[in-house]
Amino acid sequence: MGLPEQGGDRRGDRGAAAGERKGLPERFEEFLKTVGFSAFTDRKPAGFSLPLGNYILSPAHEGTVLVGDAAGFASPLLGEGIFYAHRTAELAAHAVDRHLTSAAPLAGTYTTLLRRRLIPELRAETALRNFLYRCLDARMHAPLAAFMRATDTLVVDAVQGTRSFRGFRRDDDLHSAIW
Ligand SMILES: Cc1cc2nc3c(=O)[nH]c(=O)nc-3n(C[C@H](O)[C@H](O)[C@H](O)COP(=O)(O)OP(=O)(O)OC[C@H]3O[C@@H](n4cnc5c(N)ncnc54)[C@H](O)[C@@H]3O)c2cc1C
Question: How far apart, in whole angstroms, are the C-alpha atoms of residue 177 and residue 179?
Answer without folding.
Answer: 6
